[in-house]
Amino acid sequence: MADIGDKAQAIAIGPRIVASGGFDLLYREGMTLIEEVASYLDGHGRADSRILPRDASFLYATESMRLTTRLMQLASWLLLQRAVNEGEITPENARSEKEKVKFSATPSERGGPGYEHLPEVLREFIVKGDRLFDKVMQFDTLERGTMTIGDTGTANGVVDQLARLKAAFGRAD
User: Fold this and answer.
1) 154 pLDDT above the threshold of 60
2) Do 170 and 111 touch, CB atoms closer than 8 A?
3) Is this model's pTM higher than 0.90 or not?
4) For residues 76 and 72, what is the distance between their CA atoms, to the nearest angstrom?
5) Number of domains in the chain
């Protein structure tokens, strides 16, 4: 903070959190999931898909394509953020590149005809992919500094802590 006469400036903690060890865990989780899904789809998944009823077979192709697309989008984000953290590119360059990665929306409801016939392994990978997507979106929001007091859906409590600090020091934005 500056002198008492100067306007206090907030410290951007989002980029610091993203650059911390929390990102390393997210990166490892993401890359591990990508490898596991690729291995499954290239191996046991092919065999699993061949024995499905026709409707479920079409759904398998659709869901595996959605999952693959989503994971490639997440991999792009993770690799860009890692490059920033390692000083290979600037945060501004990464933001510009991240704008080119358009994340697919997560379907609001999973299921439908034939979904229950999909291999359980694929359904578990879909759930893990959705969870990873949510985590990356939280990190992305922090990195951009766009998370505001009152945002909902955050599992990390940072927003609550910031609200408590502002309340304790009597600052209102």
Assistant:
1) no
2) no
3) no
4) 6
5) 1
